[in-house]
Design brief:
The complex is a heterodimer. Chain A is of the alpha/beta class. Chain A has 13 helices and 13 strands. Chain A has a 5-stranded mixed β-sheet with strand order 5-1-6-13-7. In chain A, helix 7 links the parallel strand 9 and strand 10. The relative contact order of chain A is 0.14. By secondary structure, chain B is mostly helical. The longest helix of chain B has 35 residues. The chains are: A alpha/beta, B mainly alpha.
Chain lengths: 301, 222
Amino acid sequence: MKTRFKTIAAGLLLTLGIAGIASCSTTASAGNDGATATTTGAGSADTKVVYRTLDEIKASGTVNIGVFSDKNPFGYVDENGEYQGYDVYFAERIGKDLGVNINYVSTEAASRVEYLETGKVDIVLANFTVTEERAQKVDFALPYMNVALGVVSPDSRVITSLDDIGENDQVIVISGTTAETYLAANNPDIKLQKYDTYANAKNAFENGSGVAWANDNTEVIAFSLQNPGYTVGIPELGSQDTIAPAVSKGNETLLNWLNDEIKALGTENFFHADYEATLVDTYGLDYENSLVVEGGVVKQN
Amino acid sequence: MWGIEVIFKGKNFLRLLGGLGTALQISLAAVLISIPLGILLGVLMAGKNPVIKAILRVYLDFIRIMPQLVLLFLVFFGTTKVWGWDLSGEVSSVIVFSMWGSAEMSDLVRGSLAAIPKHQYESAQSLGFTPWQTKIYIIIPQTIRRLIPLSINLITRMIKTTSLVLMIGVVEVLKVAQQIIEANRMTAPDAAFGVYLFVFVLYFAACFIPSLLARHLERKWS
């Protein structure tokens, strides 16, 4: 009797163990690309309306907006406990134009898609880069910012084109970033020096172990402005991505309202004002036109 | 020095204490639910019914194998996807920590009961104690004494693990610390050390008080 229970228990445990491992790997991938849903109830999610329509939000008097609370200068909390930043400046305007109060929800990169899939927030405004993979799970509105790769190098030898990089030169990248994947895929001849963390890459670059450092252009621009003696020789490299607000898949009323709002705000140069209020301290005025997208229209270079 | 000054900028100090308060409220609610529930489950696990024992064993191991973060995601997002419940981050956290706490507690209770030597039961029986009297006067007092240090250990682990709830949007002490560090990224780039040092002091204080209490009780009852 006792042994039979042991066998049954062992069998159950094994099953649970496999389930456990499966869930682990699901979460792990959610962490990596920030856009994977857990498999729980994926079937039923399609049939159920999780989101609130524009009218429902207006009637409730509060809009739930998911923002970062620790990504200065895009979304952060100041010393008085108030949300601030480029995304928040836009969120405040959305609240005002909808005529409702804003409930900010502190989101993490890894859970932004989940919040929309479950309708726990109405809008995500958290430095959300538009990708095809994410667009299958959420609906992106028109963009309000550009992101691309950038390359920073010392003033003594400014790299203004990838051709400036000699065959013995090494370029510093952070593992797992778009800079690494882009250079490895498009310029396989360039030797990469890879670091796991931002701090290590920064140290190595400052110690001169590479001729240049490739990363998101917002990151390298901020670095060059804080550290005299370095110049961003290549401010835009590779495919240009955009940052946009996102709503739950299928929430057309809210999506259309947001698109109209972004177009209307373009007439008053709202996002330039946003940049000047929130990003100018970090990026300076030089990059205003290359980073800001006004009226949802991305300029082609 | 070390960026400690940013802790006293604006309302930062109060925000950190508020964050600690949130973490402690979640752990306290979970402890109040999981200790009685854990004792009940532990007694059942130490009992003779094989079906109940098997079910509880599976429950315990399920909770143990699952990382707490997965459980938090399952309860917070999963219940919305499957049943359409809209649980807040705080409620989801209390549910997960109560599930975890009661599972761990039940195993501690089972272990403590099993550790009581058989002769204690036999001696009590030969002295004319009924089974209920044996439990109340002989077994339970000895079990509780064994349980005190073990459950305090569990409580401090629960307090420390609340740092995971920031993943489901609950702003607790660690999240406030990260917010403060990031908000001062430009003006005080080395603030991380000072702020985390302060968070360490807060966690230490929160976990040291239950430890002191446990030591006091142990001394009193030994």
